[in-house]
Amino acid sequence: MAALSRHPWCVATALLVPLLTLAAPAWLRLGGVPPAWAVLWLLPWALCEGPRSGALAGAALGLLLDSLHPASASLLPGLVLLGWWWGRLARRATPVRGTLVLGLLALVGTLTLELSLVLQWLLRGWWRSAAVMVSPESPSGGAAVLDPGVHPGPLALSGWHGIDLLGAGLHLLLAQTLLTALLAPMLCSLQLLLWRQLGAGSRG
Question: Is 142 part of any domain?
């Protein structure tokens, strides 16, 4: 672990992510869609702490957020990948800096996180379709179907169809990506400045 992990209150700032996710302030929404708070916290953390701590923080944050909204898709794989990747960028000879770079990293990170959810929904829909096709016929003579008592979300029934991607799915993807990229230069820059100072003080 790097220097920030020695400050308990720095680690505790991760709790702001589920709190802001639940609160979802109306004045911080774009078209009714909030920003990806996990991306806005994880990006500066991974840049300061490195790939190992970034991946572990992404895993912890993913488990925490998944427990708030149990669903068919998990945020954990995308956040672990982003934490590791951003941490690797921080190990380059030239440190990541600049508001434009932070905005671009947040934009790519939000897209990656959303596309990881889409991929999980597609795989889940394909798996369910395959399971129904290979299942034996029901005693009534018809093909076996899913339990009608189970009511998963419309995106988890049989994957994302084209109309879903062109409608609500595309709206959420674009709105959250744009809003997160706009907030990242300000919020991530402040966190980077504070945490790098704390890290330098701890090493000194």
Answer: no
